[in-house]
Backbone:
């Protein structure tokens, strides 16, 4: 680190503010990167759990941080030591990343995960042959479009309205506080003018103090609420926290079928038909050969997990029917010509079988346990390869 | 960022300024937190994840944690009344 790091000694409030601002600018990057890493590393079934674990740090941090810093201040009587400890924490996490961290970005066929480890820390070769400039362009455009959508703007407006104004307290109270604190910190050398005792009723009320103390949690709670609302709005008031797409998976599967299917899918389709016997509904299958989630212990890709969509939502009998069809299909064990993939995190699965049966009529879905339903578990968390069936849909 | 929120009072003594003024040291930082995150997203997508929180300054993304460490060290030595670059 020595080659670049200039150690900066801020001499004044202005310098301190400047560096504090830069801390704000750079400090969010490690926070932003967390979600993509979870996306890279885990199957979508694990996302809620992992995001919660990760998110807990952000919820706890703003409360524990200042408290810890306060205790350190109490102990050492120097505010610098608080920042010193914080610098130490960052240093420790940085060292941990250097020691154990590795790039998680993976895109099939893009030559990722090939760069030497030291290069990845400089952003070299992490994304393989991905076109960097166009990616930045597309991502920036998406961001701008998203930010200027109405729900997002509303959240922004609310948040700025909620931002606390530090100069709300009465100047006399502030002065009183300052004197009090100067006394506590044994700063008798400070040249603060004497203060006439304030009438009791002019001190902030308990309610007011409570309000101030609870402003942060209140703001946080409201922000979460608004985020949830925003999500709901954008998803057309779908199920809470649903990350499901607007286009039902089965419809997309149908579209895929029309665009030519590889032999594996045809065979699987025939096997499905045979297993279903006299089933009269439409039966479809799609061969899934790409996608970073193939292999391993799962076959359903994140963007294709369908959710209950229409009037039959909550129809338990119907969902039970779907499950029954699944159970009937179980012995069929459609084993496609999957090759054993190289795998990034381990050896990949050898061909994903039927993993998810979707009722074509209402998109009710019953998802089977990974591995149990035709999927050969290769023991890899995210293996490459696995040509097989991803989703089957049936009219039930 | 919130870590230093409770430090504004001792800092006001340090630099002989009012608590209000001292509290403004966090303003821009908090504002820039938002912009920093927004700026980081396309870069993370284009150059990978490990470039961002690495301990090295990334010539491409320039978004490393190391300035963070430096800045905190800067705060740590804030009582020294001079600006020094090593």
Residues:
């Amino acid at each position: 680190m020595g080659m670049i790091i200039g150690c900066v000694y801020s001499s004044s409030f202005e310098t301190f503010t400047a560096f504090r601002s830069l801390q704000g600018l750079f400090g969010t990057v490690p926070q932003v990167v967390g979600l993509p890493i979870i996306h890279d590393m885990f199957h979508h079934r694990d996302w809620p759990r992992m995001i919660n674990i990760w998110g807990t740090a952000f919820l706890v941090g703003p409360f524990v941080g200042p408290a810890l810093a306060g205790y350190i201040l109490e102990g050492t009587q120097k505010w610098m030591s608080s920042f010193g400890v914080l610098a130490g924490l960052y240093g420790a996490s940085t060292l941990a990343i250097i020691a154990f961290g590795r790039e998680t970005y993976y895109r099939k066929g893009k030559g990722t995960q090939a760069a030497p480890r030291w290069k990845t820390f400089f952003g070299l070769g992490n994304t393989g042959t991905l076109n960097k400039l166009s990616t930045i362009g597309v991502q920036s455009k998406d961001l701008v479009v998203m930010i200027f959508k109405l729900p997002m703007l509303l959240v922004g407006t609310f948040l700025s309205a909620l931002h606390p104004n530090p100069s709300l307290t009465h100047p006399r109270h502030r002065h009183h506080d300052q004197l009090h604190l100067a006394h506590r910190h044994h700063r008798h050398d400070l040249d603060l003018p004497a203060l006439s005792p304030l009438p009791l009723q002019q001190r902030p009320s308990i309610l007011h103090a409570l309000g101030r103390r609870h402003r942060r949690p209140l703001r946080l709670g409201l922000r979460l609420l608004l985020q949830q609302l925003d999500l709901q709005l954008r998803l057309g008031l779908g199920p809470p926290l649903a990350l499901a797409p607007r286009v039902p998976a089965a419809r997309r599967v149908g579209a895929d079928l029309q665009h030519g299917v590889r032999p594996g899918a045809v065979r699987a389709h025939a096997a499905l038909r045979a297993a279903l016997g006299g089933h009269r509904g439409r039966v479809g299958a799609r061969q899934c050969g790409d996608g970073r989630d193939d292999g391993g212990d799962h076959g359903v890709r994140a963007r294709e997990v369908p959710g209950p969509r229409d009037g039959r939502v909550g129809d338990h009998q119907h969902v039970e029917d779907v499950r029954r069809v699944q159970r009937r299909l179980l012995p069929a064990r459609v084993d496609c010509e999957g090759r054993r993939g190289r795998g990034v995190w381990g050896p990949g699965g050898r061909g994903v079988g039927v993993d998810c049966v979707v009722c074509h009529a209402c998109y009710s879905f019953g998802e089977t346990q990974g591995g149990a339903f035709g999927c050969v578990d290769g023991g890899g968390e995210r293996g490459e390869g696995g040509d097989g069936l991803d989703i089957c849909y049936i009219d039930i | 960022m919130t870590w230093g929120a409770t430090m504004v009072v001792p800092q006001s003594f340090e630099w002989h300024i009012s608590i209000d003024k001292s509290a403004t040291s966090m303003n821009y930082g908090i504002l820039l937190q938002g912009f920093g995150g927004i700026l980081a997203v396309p870069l993370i997508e284009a150059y990978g994840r490990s470039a961002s929180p690495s301990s090295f300054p990334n010539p491409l993304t320039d978004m490393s944690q190391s300035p963070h460490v430096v800045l905190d060290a800067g705060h740590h030595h804030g009582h020294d009344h001079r600006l020094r670059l090593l």
Remarks:
- The CA atoms of residues 7 and 23 of chain B lie 9 Å apart.
- The first helix of chain B runs from residue 8 to 14.
- The mean pLDDT of chain B is 67.
